[in-house]
Fold this protein.
Amino acid sequence: MAEFEELLEAQYSTLTLIQRIMINYHKLPKTRRTATAVRSSIANLKGYWDNCQLQHAKLCALADEDTRRLHEYFTKDKFLFISDTVEEVMDTLSECLERLQPSNVQLGLNESSSSHETRVSIAHLPRIDIPKFSGEITKWKTFRDIFESLVSSRGDLSNVQKLHWINHKIGDYVLIRDDRNKIGVSSKLKPKYKGPYQIAKSLGNNRYVVKDIPGFNIAQKSMDTILSSDRIKSWIKIPVEK
């Protein structure tokens, strides 16, 4: 738990730095409250938010079930509080920049003063890579908690934006959605996914080449197709007791 407590201390220290951004800005003489100063504060905010997400992912990975159930960081959803704080500070900084250079705000940040667009701006902050799910069922809960905290639970991201976080790498085993209806087979009884298959190539823009697993899939027609990430899900491997 020593590493967990160290990470937790670092997380709260970063939150303090985020909360002090506007305090430090308003301490500047009026002559130094320029667009450059605001952009510098925005850059600092993005860096702090990036660190918070990385530290949160590590905290989720280290925490066992009892810690998630009992520790204040999880029970009071401190990460959500940090996220809300970042949104508020970004909103204030955006308004400051708009007053100083409205044309640059429109071109550079693509934001307005509305709360909705401010929340969307958070989606443009630097992001960490979501830890890769290995496929081991025993590690699924940890991965799910991390993904839900960083992506799935975010109301400021659309479903399309969330898809950008569902990444697969070459060699991953996956299941693919089967929408075809077979004569004589009830659609209610037919499995929604079939497989496993293997990711052979990533084409970008959430498109993947999916092929048979060498030496595994035996069928009259081999699998070789291009699918989007919304039609693919990771194959969970059940550990075999030795």
